[in-house]
Amino acid sequence: MNEDFARVLSLLRQEKGVSQRKAAGELGISQALLSHYENGIREPGLAFVRKACDYYHVSADYLLGRTLSREGAMIGAEELADASEEKESLKGGIMAKLQKKLVVNTASVLFDLLGQVGSKDAVEQAGAYLSGGLYQLFRPLYRAAGGNESYFSTDSGSYDLDVLAADMTLARVRYAKALEAYRGDYPAVDAQSLAEEYHELSQSMAQVFHGVDERVKEMLE
């Protein structure tokens, strides 16, 4: 087994909203043994993996961390739903198409949820933060391709001093404060609710977050 198995096993139990004691009883093992499985101390046999898959309604590939699709299918660019209305193929190959779909789909879910929250400030600040990120990715490309930087209002000196990073940090702070100030009801954002509401789009979001988590984990090791 691998580290992904222990992590996914623990997350699935938390998503199901059951205690370790209850899950262990329904899976036919002791709480101590389930704790060992969830913490990666011991590895289960095939019989337990089958039981866990049935109990949490996921595929073995998902439980083992081999795919982000709960049904077990490996997610490729051609299989992802696309939340954008633009259907033409991107120049640059399959990787560009995949990354575009992941980002567009994740942003679509985010803004749909924010729309349900109904905080105008949160929506505006989320847009400001993401716009800043796109700006910071596009401008170096524009510069490398020999474009005249007068196209941008922010002078190159200020840009090179990372003023955009400061703008994004401020937007993120304002976004968090807007959510803190909101007093209405929030939509369900647990993994099961997202999967039921957004179907394939939620797979894109899970893949984006998983990729970030993996990069962070590698950076911290």
Describe the secondary structure blueprint for this structure.
Elements: H1 3-16, H2 20-27, H3 31-38, H4 46-56, H5 60-63, H6 94-117, H7 120-144, H8 156-160, H9 163-181, H10 191-198, H11 200-220
Descriptive notes:
The protein has helices spanning 3-16, 20-27, 31-38, 46-56, 60-63, 94-117, 120-144, 156-160, 163-181, 191-198, 200-220. It contains 11 helices and no strands. It is mostly helical and 221 residues long. It is elongated.
Tally of helical segments: 11
Helix percentage? 55-70%
- Encode the helix/strand succession as letters: HHHHHHHHHHH
What's the rounded overall pLDDT mean?
A: 85
What's the gyration radius in Å? Answer: 21 Å
Largest sheet: none
Q: What brief labels describe this structure?
A:
67% helix; 221 residues; mainly alpha
